[in-house]
């Protein structure tokens, strides 16, 4: 469904299924940069017996159009999260628990800090919340990499083969990668397939990350799990996890030793079990 936000934008919210209204809580999945909400369907499936799962597409990702004003500041995108929670509530589901991955984790946590009580709890996998201000636009290495990304493939089949044959996307489960190619691309008239999240928009999205820090989210008082993959603990954003957990009043840090930054895509059942544990205790 398409919903309006308080800042005049439109965000697409996907119903990934689960229990009926009144039979359990809701989960809102907030995705990582460059990806989209429907990629988390393999994570949503094991959650669906206990909760009803929804996932949004941030601006310029999946089916949500890029912002007309070019605003890519992550703190502004908390409006999209708030609108999604309101729509979930209007559908008869409460309370709402957040599941956030990378960018999505940072924005969900900031949304809760800015609007206390938005969520009942949060499970955040390597949220990009920094100790202080992030480097200025133009100095972000992830942005530079995004600008070099191939945008168009001869077909979806070619895109799937290319991604499956090399890291990092080759580390995803086959179902998750197939969902990326299905929902993260659009068909062009000549039969080719183009990324919905265009490389320049992805780069600018990385550059818009600087406003969410330990200090800006410190007011989030709900139970929070800050999860990290053990395969890259010395590198950001995993390296931010100890400081972030310490900055929050009710946070616990956990490490999944066998996973990397794409943990929710590498082992969706493992992360789903951890989310259910957080919901049960949070």
Automatic annotation (TrEMBL):
It comes from the Bacteria. One of its GO terms (cellular component) is membrane. Signal peptide: none annotated. Keywords: Hydrolase. One of its GO terms (molecular function) is monoacylglycerol lipase activity. One of its GO terms (biological process) is acylglycerol catabolic process. The keyword Hydrolase applies. Residues 27-274 form the AB hydrolase-1 domain. This is Alpha/beta hydrolase.
